[in-house]
Structures are given as structure tokens and as C-alpha cells.
């Protein structure tokens, strides 16, 4: 049977055309930690040389000029180029660099899956001869002129983000040939014997492009993200793009070709002429038809046979299927097991057949129906089949499959709706089921389960898949889902297409409601996934009942003075320097604590520095005093990093015997967490009691919170307290639980919210002269639109923004630097870092040894200096900055000691994978001098040091190391190979560089000095929460590096760019928040400063401004809101409204607090500025009962 393959290639900014990128310095993706092959390009790239040869054909370069991307760069190139490979460090000079020809349209493929399969390990060590045999078998299975090759980029690509990594399909063609194995030169006998003759694991795979196949023109639309997003292809089934290269079935290949077909049709609609897309479409359709014939009607038959234990029968069945006789292969096998008919070619005779037939008959009737009639039609893995028909109810439930096997027999689409795999790659996409249910008419197979092309079950599954693809929204509009479903079907082959209308929601409602919730609200139909709707209701039910309880009765009193004594820090310098201000702040915190302490449900909310941790500690002590030392108190956090931080802070304050854990650990303890880390919806043990505090509650997504409320024994709970900052980034998952809970409790107005408004950190900085601009500026990114509590931009805010616009030192704690060219950004960043380090340490920079300054400045404390950036990709992103910073600090170390998966000694690294108690890492405890299994969590940062085995060595090539993480420096976590007891711990699967990290990764952490990148956005603006979160990570100083001018910051500050406000949710009764379509789909109308008539309330800040905006809209006067106005001398203000009328420009200021002397002075200063620079262009209104009339008079008098 023909197989096909996916081939991973490193990102290339000019379409893999056999040339050096035209601007190689702008391609940061090829050096990313998820590039290809491994970290080769990051280690070997010579950027200066590439820039000197920019745009040149690689075929014309000298040997020493060859770029390390040669494995990928010629995938669609027209000429033969030279490839090369350097022997790995562990060859110890036992071989030398090899070069070979890479023909046109050729990429070098590494079969990682074959190289690292379970059978290549002998006593825990790799058997390279066996690996070589596996590689030979992998390449031998590829058929010239038959197999297709699908090219894709790993996660290091322009479309991936930290919270949403994606593979990207690049092109497809047919295989022309596969080269023989490649070997290094001058291989020694020892290396030859140990390493399969000195084999290079990659081989040339040449395609028939351009005669057959296509390449998607991403390189032509780099600056047009809107167009890119229309034709980009992400594989529906990520499993097809794993392990560098993977063999695919005909069914897999059809699915990918269908996706390319949709992309071609989008390119044709765009008017793209980079290829003859009509011709390419005909080729794709021809390939699909060809593959349907090869696929046959029963692509899953062989795995069903294996599942049933009939492995001996699969060889003949495979031969029949390769001959196009899949129906015969299916009939022969099931005649044997159903009717005990001997089939000699299958080896099913006598006793083996009797045993097989008996085991078959022992299976439940519904399972046999599924195995006979449905699963052979679906191209599923053996493991998936086993889970689907398992008689273990717990196993089935763990994978989303409730009930018996009759449901998928009656409607196979439920497998795509419900199945939950063991990893992100273990999925059953809708397309896989659709191809089995509705096969090509030429195969002569009847649709499964009497399915029609416009069947309600098919329609429902499509709706479910579209809802799943939107990871943040709780619900979506039915008409929007309908449009996406029809668009998707139109991209399929014509015989598979269907067109659904809104009428289907009404006619097929009963069927749809088996997996969806249909809800009419605000004259519109909305769709929820059933589980998501249930999650909302379970949270609402639990918290509403809790909130409705009577106040907690205290066994012993705890007075206002007790609260003040608990909160007052007698060691604080504020007590001596600013006693009155400090006492006021303590009193406010004490009052907040006293207000909520007796409430069964409460929220503590405040910005960074307002004392949330102090309040947590005070509450715990109050519980102990009023209920006794043995009173149960549990403190949880959504992440291991946050849980570790709160545990450390409690210990610092002398509070012990408090159970601290992650929410996931709490769920696992009660049996609410499946082995694949999904949540059980029932069947666990309810636990917890007394006082439960959840810190960093803004990070709770809907699913995690719903699981928590199901797992808690509410009968035993006295208090449930959520603590957090709602202005930080919302959770990566679905919903906005914390923000919604605050809104709900606000409306109840029952004293359940403690708002910490006094910022002690800010106060301390002001008193000690350390500056307050960080928190002042962060406060300007607290989202507020025209609600009752909305305020217009204040004079103080405008003054601060003017200072930021000017640049330089805004205050002692905040510096703003503007930059333009991304290619010079890293150098500018390094200069700022090293200047600060020299100042802080009084140590001069040694240009030959910059690492000396860095190590002195950090003092082995990884949280002293941190670069933060919103994105992973591009030159301002995590990957490019980490490469530049590592090159600056560790280049010499890497040359001396080498690296493991791109990480060398003394590098700053971050753990990106949770390793809890259930899956810990070996660490050496320097206190006990013993190794122990220890947990470490996503987001923890540390420094690489020598492993104990290498501590006394001055010169060696790295194969292992240990990491000391912040707040865990008594432990050395071991990574690499040849660890104690012959073990290994993958570096690539756990760590990445952390000189720069994303703002999302930094959430919940604090650093003394931060350097925050604020780039211009090609697509949607940065959010106010992202800027707020980035700013509040710094405890001492923040350097903002802003691209271009202040407009990027002003854009993030706009109410419509508040990320939390763009999430649909309906968590509590009487609260239904649906984001207006115009805000979701802005491309047709949105311009910075333009206010949509239907959205004024979402886009201006105060009620008075809303009145003015509505009057301007009513009279048809176009205007802009809060767009910066820069005078000839470079100074700046933000007019409330700017109006261009008959060629003249007018600026409208609404004055709100004229009773304030400071405000009146600000107005005078601003009027003087207008008079000096924009004389006669100022319009004014004032707060008061006549505002509407005054504004109407101005509009009518000046514009109408």
C-alpha cells in the first residue's frame, strides 16, 4: 500500500527557492528552538555572511559560505546546491564534515520517529545499527512517482504564538526519488562500528515540483496578515506533522490535500498570480481521486484486525487492499469471525480461528457492530480503536466516550465531537470521520448510518468543531458558525459539499441539542458546547449557594485592632518615613479584611504592590485565632509556579501547617484528574473544608474552575476566597471567571469584595525616591469603557503619556526608549542591559568577556534582570532575542564546552513543561547531599551549571548539566544523558532559553529590572492587559523599548483593545456578555481612533464622552477619539475628539472637574498650548446638566 510523508523544513522568507533570504536578518524563525533540524541553524548560522550573500543562489556559493539551512532551502529551488553536515561532538574528531549535492526541489529528511522508536534501545542505550535499519526501512517504504510529500514548518514559524503553537503546511508535491544513505567523511573504525558506519541520518528526497505540486506563497504576503490568514493551512490532524518526518496513509493524505484545495480557492479569490492556480487545483483534484481509489472503502480494517488479535491475517489483507479489493478483504475477515468460515490466505483455520471467533463473540453486540461496520471505514490508530471499544468505563470516560458503543455506531461523528486523546496530537478530526461516513461515490460504498450530505448529525459535528477551534469564547453566534461551516464545505470536492441555512437550527434542534446548547438572547441565536454550558452552570450554582449563606459565625472575636496588628509591618521603613500615609493604608486593608472575613464567598482584588499576599497571611492568622490552630486552611493556585511562590511567602512570614498546592494537584488527590490530565466530570471524591483561598485567580479558566467546584465538599467549607488582579492577562483557556465573579458580586453589593486601592509598593517608592511611574503608567491600562465607573483620561494621565511620548527617563523607575529598525533592536537592547549592569555593579564592561559583567550583575539570581516581549516570533520575539543574547553572553562557553539541544553552561533557562509529583525530575539536594525526585513547574527560571559528575573538569564536551532554579537553589535539577543510574532527561522536552521570555510566561512572576519590548502590530493591536501585565512584573525598574512612537501604547490603551472585554461569557444569572460583531470583525471599518456608531459605549471612556459621540453620530459628523496631536515643537496632548470638516481641523475638549484647582490649572495650560500651536481650533464643553444642549449647539454651529 502506498504511503506518503510529511517533511519538516526550517522557515525561509523567500519561499525555499534555493537562495539565501533577501533579508536574512529578518528571518528569526529558522534559528528558533522549534526549527529544523534541531538547533543546527542556531549553532552554525553566520548571519554576517548570509547578509553579504543576501538573495544570492546557494548554487553559486563557496563551500565555506554554505548556510546551515541547506537541508530545507532548496525544497522548491530550480538548481542543484551543495549540502553539508558537521559530525556531532560525541564523534570526538572520529569523522570530518561531509558535503553532497542537493538536486532541485529537494529537501533533506530526518526520520526522527524511526530513529527513536522503542526498539532502538538496548539496556537503556541507543543501538545505532538498529536505528540505521529503521531509517532504511522508513525510506524504502517511499515509492518514487507514487508517494506524495507534504512540506511543513515546525512551531518556529510566523503563525505560532506562545499560547497557541501551530504547524504550518507549506507545499506538496510527488516524490521523484530518495537518495542513498549519506556518510560523514574520514570516519574512524571506532565511530564506524558504534555509529552505523558514520551515517548522516538525513537523506535527500527530491520531488517533481514544479511539474507536479504547489508551494503556498507565504513569502509574497509577509506584510499582509489579513491575506495570509485566509490561505494559511494548519493541519486538521497535528499528528501528521510530528517527528520531523512521518509516514502517512492515503486517508491522511486526502485530508491534507483537501486543506490545500481550500487554500488554492482562497488564493484565486485574492487574485494571486504567483502560480497557475487553476492548473494546481486540477492536480490536487486528480490526486484526491487517485488516493480515494488507493484508500479504498476500509482504511481502518488492518488496525481493527490487529486489535482483535488477527495480526497474521493482515499481510494478505494488505495485499488485497493494495489491489483495490478492500471490500473483499473486509468480507473474508468478518465471514471468518462471524460465521467461523476458514480463510486459508488469512491463516484463519482450525484452532486459531476458533479462538479468534470465540473472543469475537464474547464482545458486546454494540462493540461488534462498531468493529465490523464502522471502525474499518475510519483511518484511526490502534490505540484509538482500543479506547473506543474498551469495556473499561473509566478508560472510555477518560477519553470523552460516555455510554456504550451504540452511539458511534448510530452516529460516527460523535467520535470527532467527544474523543479526547492522551496528547494534543491524539485527535480524531471531523474530516477523518467524514471521509469514512461519506466515501467517494466511485468506491460504491453506502454512507454509514444512513447519513445524508446535509444530515443534522453532520451539521452538528461541524458546529462542534468550529466551537472547539475558538479556545477563549464561552459561546458564539449561530449565524457566524453557520457561515464558517458553509465556507469550509465549499472548499471540499464538489460531491462532498452541502449548504446549510439558519432554518436547520430550527428543524434539527433536537439532534443539535444532543451536543450543543442553543440559546436565544438579544434577538439572536447563540451556540454553546454542552460541556461548556454545564461548566458555567456548575460554577454559578456552587458560588450562588455559597454566597447566599448566612455570615460565618466566629467562635472567638477578631477586632479591627487585631486586623491592623496583623497587617502592620513593624519593620517597614514606611512606619518611620510616612507613618500617617502608611497607617491609613493599613487601616484600609484592615477594613477590607474585616468586611469579607465573615462572608462565605469573597474576592480580594488589587494591583501589584497593594498587599494581596499580606491580606492572605492576615486572613490565615485570623482563622487560626478565631477557630484554633488546627482549623483547616488550604491555599491553591492555578499554576505550580504560583503555588511555589505563595508557599515561599507564607514561610517567610512564619505561617506553617497550611496546605498549599496547585488546583490540578488538589483535583488529582480527589480522583478528578484523568491520566491524560483531562478533567473528570463526575466520580471523584469531594474534599476540602474550612477556609479555601485561591491565589492568582485571574488565571482560572472556565474548565479548571468548574472542575474545582465539583471537587470541593461545600458542606465542609466555611470560606472560599478568590484572590487576584483582574487587570492582568485573562486565562489562556475559555472564559473570564474571575472578572465575571467580580462583576456579579459588585451587583449583589453584599460586602463580598475587598478592593485593595492603597499601593504600598508605590508609596514606598515615592518616599524612598525610587519612582512611581511604573505603577502610574500601568494604571492607565486598566480597561474601562463608558460604564458608570468609567473616567475620561485625567490631566495626570495625559501628563504621564506626554512624558512617555518624550522618551528617556520618565521617573526613577521607568525609562522609555524608541526604536525603528528590528534588525538593530538586539544590539540596542544589549547596550541598555549592559549599561545598567555596569551602573549597578560599578564594573566596567570587558568587550572580550561580556559574560563577566553579566554574571556579576545577576549574582546567580535569575530574577534580577528579565527581557519581556509579547511575541515568540519576529526579531522582537523570544526566539530571536534569546539567540542574540546567548551569542553575546555564552558564545565562548559554547565553543569551549559545546551545548545540549542549544543550551550551554551558565545559560539562563526556563522550564516550560510541568513536572509535578506524579512525574518529577531527579535533583541533587545540596543540603542532604543526596539525589531525590523533585517537582518543577512551567515558568520557573534558573541558571545552568556543571553537573556533579563534571564539577572538577575544566575542559569537556557537554552531555549533561544541572539547573538551579529561583527559590530552589538548594536543588540541582539534572538534564541530559548519562545521568546517575544510566538515566537521561530530555533537555529539548523541558527547557528553553530564558534571557527573554513572553509576557504570558512572566505572569505570576516578578523581576527587579525588566526590559519590555512594545512592537508595532501588523494585525490587531496589543491588549491593555498585556501592557499592564508586562509593566507590573518589575519591582524596581522597567525599561520600555517602544517601536516607532507612542501610538502603539495608546492603541493598547483603547477600551476596544481590552482583551477581557472581547470574551463572550454568561456565567451568572442576569449577566450575558456578547461581544459585538463589529468589534470581532473590524477589518471592514476599523481605523485607530474611529468610533463605530453601534459601539460608542464600548469605545469611549466616560458617560459624558458617550453623549458627545452619539450626538456627532446622529448628525453624521465623522470624528476621531483620543488620537495623539503633536505640535511642531514635539509636545503632545490627546484631544477628546478630533473633527475634520470642510478641510479644517477642530479639536474638542470636554472638561469634567472644574471644581478642582489642579484640573482648572491643567485646562489653562492646555488652552495656552492650543492657542500657541493650533489657534482657533479648540472647541469646549463642560460637565453639567446642559451638556447635551451645549454639545448640540457646537455641532450645529460649526459643522451643519
**Through-space gap between termini:** 76 Å
State the shape.
globular
Strand content: 15-25%
Largest sheet: 7 strands, mixed
Mean pLDDT: 92
Query: How many beta-strand segments?
Result: 41
Number of helices: 46
Share of helix, binned: 25-40%
pLDDT < 50 runs, ≥5 residues: 784-789
The Rg value, from CA coordinates, equals 32 Å
Briefly say what this structure is.
The chain is an alpha/beta fold. It has 46 helices and 41 strands. α44 (1103-1114) packs parallel to α46 (1187-1199).
Description of the structure:
The radius of gyration is 32 Å and the shape is globular. Strands 1, 4, 7, 8, 11, 12 and 13 form a seven-stranded mixed beta sheet that branches. A seven-stranded antiparallel beta sheet has the order 28-27-31-30-29-26-32. A six-stranded parallel beta sheet has the order 19-18-20-21-17-22, sandwiched between helices. By secondary structure, the chain is of the alpha/beta class.
Topology:
Layout: E1 4-8, H1 40-44, H2 47-52, H3 70-73, E2 81-85, E3 98-102, E4 106-109, H4 112-115, E5 121-122, E6 125-126, H5 128-140, E7 148-153, E8 168-178, E9 182-183, H6 189-194, E10 199-200, E11 203-207, E12 214-215, H7 225-231, E13 245-248, H8 250-270, H9 277-295, H10 301-307, H11 314-322, H12 326-339, H13 350-362, H14 365-374, H15 382-388, H16 393-398, H17 406-410, H18 414-418, H19 430-437, H20 456-469, E14 476-477, H21 478-490, H22 503-507, H23 509-512, E15 516-521, E16 524-529, H24 530-547, H25 560-567, H26 574-577, H27 579-597, E17 601-606, H28 612-627, E18 633-637, H29 640-652, E19 659-662, H30 663-669, E20 690-694, H31 702-711, E21 717-724, H32 737-748, E22 753-756, H33 760-768, H34 773-779, H35 795-806, E23 808-811, E24 814-819, H36 825-841, H37 850-858, E25 865-869, H38 878-897, E26 908-911, E27 921-925, E28 930-934, E29 941-945, E30 960-965, E31 971-976, E32 991-993, E33 996-998, H39 999-1002, E34 1007-1014, H40 1024-1031, E35 1034-1043, H41 1047-1053, H42 1077-1080, H43 1096-1099, H44 1103-1114, E36 1120-1121, ...
Parallel strand pairs: 1-7, 17-21, 17-22, 18-19, 18-20, 20-21, 24-35, 25-33, 25-34, 34-35, 40-41
Antiparallel strand pairs: 1-13, 2-3, 4-11, 5-6, 7-8, 8-11, 8-12, 9-10, 14-16, 15-16, 23-24, 26-29, 26-32, 27-28, 27-31, 29-30, 30-31, 36-39, 37-38, 39-40
Amino acid at each position: 500500500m502506498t504511503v506518503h510523508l510529511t517533511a519538516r523544513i526550517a522557515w525561509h522568507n523567500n519561499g525555499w527557492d534555493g537562495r539565501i533570504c533577501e533579508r536574512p536578518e529578518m528571518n528569526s524563525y529558522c534559528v528558533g528552538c522549534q526549527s529544523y533540524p534541531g538547533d543546527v541553524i542556531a549553532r552554525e548560522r553566520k548571519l554576517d555572511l548570509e547578509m553579504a550573500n543576501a538573495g544570492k543562489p546557494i548554487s553559486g556559493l563557496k563551500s565555506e559560505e554554505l548556510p546551515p539551512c541547506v537541508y530545507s532551502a532548496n525544497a522548491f529551488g530550480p538548481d542543484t546546491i551543495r549540502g553539508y553536515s558537521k559530525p556531532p561532538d560525541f564523534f570526538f574528531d572520529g569523522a570530518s564534515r561531509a558535503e553532497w549535492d542537493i538536486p532541485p526541489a529537494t529537501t533533506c529528511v530526518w526520520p526522527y520517529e524511526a530513529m527513536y522508536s522503542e526498539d532502538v534501545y538496548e539496556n537503556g542505550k541507543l543501538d545505532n545499527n538498529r536505528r540505521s535499519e529503521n531509517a532504511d526501512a522508513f525510506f524504502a517504504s517511499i515509492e518514487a512517482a507514487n508517494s506524495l510529500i507534504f512540506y511543513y514548518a515546525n512551531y518556529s514559524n510566523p503563525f505560532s504564538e506562545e499560547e497557541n503553537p501551530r504547524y504550518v503546511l507549506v507545499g506538496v508535491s510527488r516524490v521523484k526519488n530518495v537518495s542513498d544513505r549519506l556518510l560523514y567523511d574520514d570516519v574512524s573504525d571506532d565511530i564506524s562500528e558504534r555509529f552505523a558506519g558514520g551515517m548522516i541520518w538525513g537523506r535527500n528526497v527530491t520531488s517533481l515540483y514544479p511539474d507536479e505540486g504547489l508551494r503556498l506563497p507565504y513569502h509574497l504576503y509577509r506584510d499582509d496578515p489579513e491575506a495570509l490568514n485566509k490561505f494559511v493551512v494548519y493541519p486538521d490532524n497535528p499528528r501528521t506533522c510530528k517527528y520531523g518526518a512521518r509516514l502517512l496513509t492515503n486517508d491522511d493524505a486526502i485530508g491534507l490535500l483537501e486543506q490545500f484545495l481550500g487554500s488554492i480557492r482562497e488564493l484565486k479569490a485574492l487574485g494571486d498570480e504567483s502560480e497557475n492556480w487553476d492548473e494546481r487545483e486540477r492536480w490536487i483534484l486528480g490526486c484526491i481521486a487517485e488516493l480515494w481509489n488507493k484508500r479504498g472503502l476500509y482504511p481502518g480494517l488492518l488496525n481493527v484486525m490487529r486489535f482483535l488479535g488477527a495480526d497474521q491475517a493482515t499481510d494478505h489483507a494488505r495485499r488485497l487492499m493494495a489491489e483495490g479489493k478492500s471490500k473483499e478483504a473486509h468480507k473474508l475477515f468478518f465471514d471468518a469471525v462471524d460465521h467461523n468460515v476458514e480463510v486459508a490466505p488469512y491463516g484463519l483455520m482450525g484452532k486459531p480461528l476458533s479462538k479468534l471467533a470465540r473472543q469475537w463473540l464474547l464482545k458486546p453486540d454494540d462493540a461488534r457492530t462498531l468493529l465490523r461496520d464502522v471502525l474499518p471505514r475510519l483511518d484511526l490508530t490502534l490505540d484509538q480503536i482500543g479506547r473506543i471499544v474498551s469495556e473499561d468505563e473509566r478508560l472510555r470516560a477518560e477519553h470523552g466516550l460516555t455510554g456504550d458503543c451504540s452511539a458511534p455506531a448510530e452516529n460516527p461523528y460523535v467520535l470527532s465531537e467527544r474523543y479526547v486523546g492522551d496528547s494534543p496530537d491524539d485527535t480524531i478530526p471531523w474530516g477523518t470521520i467524514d471521509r469514512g461516513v461519506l466515501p467517494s461515490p466511485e468506491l460504491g460504498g453506502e454512507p454509514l448510518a444512513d447519513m445524508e450530505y446535509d444530515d443534522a448529525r453532520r451539521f452538528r459535528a461541524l458546529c462542534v468543531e468550529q466551537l472547539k477551534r475558538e479556545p477563549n469564547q464561552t459561546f458564539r453566534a449561530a449565524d457566524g458558525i453557520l457561515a464558517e461551516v458553509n465556507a469550509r464545505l465549499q472548499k471540499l470536492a464538489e460531491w462532498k459539499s452541502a449548504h446549510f441555512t439558519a432554518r436547520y437550527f430550527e428543524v434539527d434542534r433536537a439532534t443539535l441539542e444532543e451536543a450543543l446548547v442553543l440559546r436565544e438572547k438579544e434577538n439572536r441565536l447563540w451556540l454553546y458546547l454542552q460541556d461548556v454550558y454545564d461548566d458555567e452552570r456548575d460554577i454559578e450554582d456552587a458560588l450562588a449557594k455559597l454566597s447566599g449563606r448566612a455570615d460565618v459565625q466566629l467562635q472567638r472575636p477578631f477586632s479591627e485592632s487585631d486586623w491592623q496588628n496583623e497587617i502592620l509591618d513593624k519593620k517597614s521603613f514606611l512606619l518611620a518615613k510616612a507613618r500617617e500615609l502608611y497607617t491609613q493604608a493599613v487601616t484600609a486593608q484592615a477594613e477590607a479584611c474585616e468586611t469579607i472575613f465573615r462572608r462565605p464567598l469573597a474576592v480580594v482584588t488589587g494591583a501589584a504592590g497593594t498587599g494581596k499576599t499580606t491580606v492572605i497571611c492576615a486572613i490565615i492568622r485570623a482563622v487560626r485565632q478565631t477557630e484554633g490552630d488546627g482549623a483547616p486552611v488550604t491555599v491553591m493556585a492555578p499554576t505550580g509556579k504560583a503555588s511555589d511562590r505563595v508557599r515561599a511567602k507564607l514561610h517567610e512570614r512564619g505561617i506553617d501547617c497550611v496546605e498549599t498546592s496547585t488546583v490540578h494537584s488538589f483535583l488529582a488527590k480527589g480522583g478528578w484528574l484523568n491520566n491524560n490530565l483531562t478533567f473528570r466530570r463526575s466520580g471523584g471524591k469531594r474534599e476540602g473544608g474550612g477556609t479555601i483561598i485561591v491565589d492568582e485567580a485571574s488565571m482560572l479558566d472556565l474548565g479548571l474552575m468548574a472542575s474545582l467546584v465539583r471537587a470541593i465538599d461545600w458542606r465542609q467549607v466555611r470560606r472560599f476566597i478568590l484572590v487576584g488582579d483582574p487587570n492582568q492577562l485573562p486565562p489562556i483557556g475559555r472564559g473570564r471567571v474571575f472578572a465575571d465573579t467580580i462583576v456579579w458580586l459588585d451587583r449583589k453589593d453584599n460586602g463580598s469584595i475587598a478592593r485593595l486601592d492603597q499601593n504600598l509598593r508605590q508609596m514606598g517608592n515615592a518616599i524612598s525616591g525610587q519612582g512611581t511611574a511604573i505603577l502610574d503608567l500601568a494604571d492607565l491600562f486598566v480597561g474601562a469603557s463608558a460604564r458608570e465607573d468609567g473616567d475620561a483620561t485625567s490631566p495626570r494621565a495625559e501628563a504621564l503619556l506626554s512624558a512617555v511620548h518624550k522618551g528617556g527617563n520618565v521617573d526613577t523607575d521607568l525609562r522609555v526608549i524608541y526604536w525603528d529598525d528590528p534588525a538593530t533592536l538586539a544590539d540596542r537592547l544589549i547596550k541598555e542591559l549592559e549599561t545598567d549592569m555596569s551602573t549597578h555593579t560599578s564594573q566596567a564592561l570587558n568587550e572580550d568577556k561580556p559574560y563577566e559583567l553579566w554574571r556579576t550583575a545577576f549574582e546567580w539570581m535569575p530574577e534580577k534582570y528579565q527581557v519581556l516581549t509579547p511575541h515568540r516570533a519576529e526579531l522582537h520575539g523570544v526566539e530571536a532575542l534569546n539567540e542574540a543574547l546567548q551569542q553575546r553572553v555564552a558564545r565562548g562557553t559554547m565553543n569551549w564546552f559545546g551545548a545540549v539541544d542549544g543550551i550551554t553552561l551558565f545559560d539562563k533557562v526556563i522550564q516550560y513543561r510541568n513536572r509535578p509529583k506524579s512525574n518529577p525530575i531527579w535533583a541533587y539536594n545540596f543540603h542532604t547531599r543526596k539525589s531525590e525526585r523533585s517537582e518543577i513547574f512551567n515558568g520557573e527560571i534558573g541558571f545552568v551549571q556543571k553537573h556533579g559528575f563534571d564539577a572538577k573538569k575544566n575542559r569537556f564536551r557537554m552531555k549533561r548539566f544541572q539547573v538551579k532554579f529561583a527559590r530552589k537553589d538548594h536543588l540541582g535539577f539534572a538534564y541530559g544523558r548519562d545521568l546517575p543510574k544510566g538515566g537521561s532527561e530530555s533537555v529539548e522536552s523541558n527547557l528553553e532559553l530564558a534571557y527573554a521570555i513572553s509576557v504570558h510566561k512572566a505572569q505570576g512572576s516578578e523581576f527587579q529590572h525588566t526590559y519590555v519590548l512594545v512592537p508595532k502590530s501588523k494585525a490587531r493591536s496589543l491588549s491593555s492587559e498585556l501592557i499592564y501585565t508586562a509593566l507590573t512584573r518589575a519591582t524596581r525598574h522597567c525599561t520600555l523599548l517602544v517601536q516607532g512612537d507612542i501610538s502603539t501604547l495608546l492603541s493598547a490603551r483603547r477600551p476596544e483593545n481590552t482583551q477581557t472585554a472581547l470574551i463572550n461569557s454568561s456565567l451568572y444569572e442576569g449577566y450575558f456578555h456578547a461581544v459585538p460583531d463589529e468589534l470581532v470583525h473590524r477589518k471592514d471599518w476599523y481605523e485607530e481612533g474611529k468610533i463605530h456608531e453601534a459601539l460608542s459605549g464600548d469605545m469611549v471612556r466616560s458617560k459624558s464622552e458617550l453623549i458627545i459621540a452619539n450626538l456627532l453620530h446622529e448628525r453624521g459628523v465623522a470624528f476621531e477619539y483620543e488620537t495623539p496631536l503633536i505640535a511642531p515643537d514635539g509636545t503632545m496632548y490627546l484631544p477628546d475628539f478630533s473633527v475634520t470638516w470642510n478641510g479644517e481641523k477642530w479639536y474638542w475638549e470636554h472638561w469634567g472637574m472644574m471644581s478642582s484647582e489642579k484640573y482648572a490649572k491643567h485646562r489653562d495650560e492646555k488652552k495656552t498650548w492650543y492657542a500657541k500651536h493650533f489657534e482657533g481650533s479648540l472647541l469646549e464643553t463642560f460637565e453639567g446638566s446642559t451638556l447635551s444642549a451645549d454639545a448640540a449647539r457646537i455641532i450645529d454651529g460649526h459643522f451643519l
